[in-house]
Amino acid sequence: MTVLTSPAPSLTSGKLPKWAPWALLLASFAISYAVFAVTSIGEDLVDFNIVGASIVGILLYMVLITVISAIAESRRKAVDRLMTALVATAFLIALMPLVSLLWTVAVNGIHRFDAEFFSFSMRNIVGEGGGIVHAIWGTVLVTLTAAVISVPIGLMTSIYLVEYGRGKLAKGITFFVDVMTGIPSIVAGLFIYAVFSLLIRPGISMGIMGALALAVLMTPVVVRGSEELLRIVPNELREAAYALGVPKWLTILKVVLPTSIAGIMTSVMLSISRVIGETAPLLLTAGFTLSMNTNIFNGQMMTLPVFAYNQYMNQGTNPEAALDRAWASALTLILIVMVLNLLARLIAKWFAPKTSGR
């Protein structure tokens, strides 16, 4: 029995082989870097313009892949390859600030990742040493309290808007949620500070005040995200539950929420990521301290953003040690956000409705 196999694509078969775009990309970068290296002969290696060489290499690749594709394939395929190169380049350009940020924070913050840094506070520390255990506890307690306050309010508001809300009241709630989404964070801090100054005394700072300020910022994010996710739940699921005689509140609890739980968890994590790095409202409300304080209802509390800001602005007798602590606290904050996102994914996967599969 004879098996017919199609020949591999070549430059003359009307279709470029799979290795051709990658070979052109490598050749373009090699030519560009070689030209820039020749022009920088006699200068220091630090003066080599790697950004300019990369840009020229990308532009050269776009020209080569378009011309060669137009000759070997077709004009339509050449335009397609050019657009693919443009989209990939735009993606890499958008990714560069994020990679640069993570790399800078990791390189500068890894120096203080030791046992002392995560087990000591800054009490009685003037120069080197000290740690952020008090700031970690403050960040966790303030953010957790804010989430406990804002998530139920935001979720129930989104359920009302999707399942029950009609008329002027629903439109008014939607309007105010949209307005709250865009308010500056310092306004939330000033609002909570003013309320507590009127109710208790001026100049007061407590952890619960910081949690309330963050809750003001979190609530509209939870509402908007959860509302959109609840709206995309198919109405057929609701109608099937109603046909079986299930009341509406139980349908929401057993059908609608489990169907959208993964997206809701993502919305909650977005709201936490939105506020966990806030500095201005926490400076006004939670204040800052050098000692450990785990009571959010009594005394000032240190948080990681405020700690990084304080170490940078007040470097004391040893500026290098203070900057190391600031970078390390920023890296710790990024890692906490990553861990929270992983936990949210696991929780969403655990509570998501089980579907039959192979």
From TrEMBL:
Statement: the UniProt record of this protein carries the keyword Cell membrane: yes
Any one of the GO BP annotations: phosphate ion transmembrane transport
Gene3D superfamilies referenced in this protein's UniProt entry, alphabetically: MetI-like
UniProt cross-references to PROSITE patterns, sorted A to Z: ABC_TM1 (PS50928)
Domain ABC transmembrane type-1: 136-344
Domain of life: Bacteria
Cellular component terms per the entry's GO annotation: plasma membrane
Example of a GO MF term: phosphate transmembrane transporter activity
Cell compartment(s), UniProt: Cell membrane
Pfam families, per database record: BPD_transp_1 (PF00528)
Membrane topology according to the record: Multi-pass membrane protein
Entry keyword set: Cell membrane, Membrane, Phosphate transport, Transmembrane, Transmembrane helix, Transport
Main location: membrane
Transmembrane segments: 21-42, 48-72, 84-111, 131-161, 173-196, 202-223, 255-276, 326-348
Protein family: Belongs to the binding-protein-dependent transport system permease family. CysTW subfamily.
Biological function: Part of the binding-protein-dependent transport system for phosphate; probably responsible for the translocation of the substrate across the membrane.
Protein name: Phosphate transport system permease protein PstA
Species assigned in the record: Microbacterium aerolatum
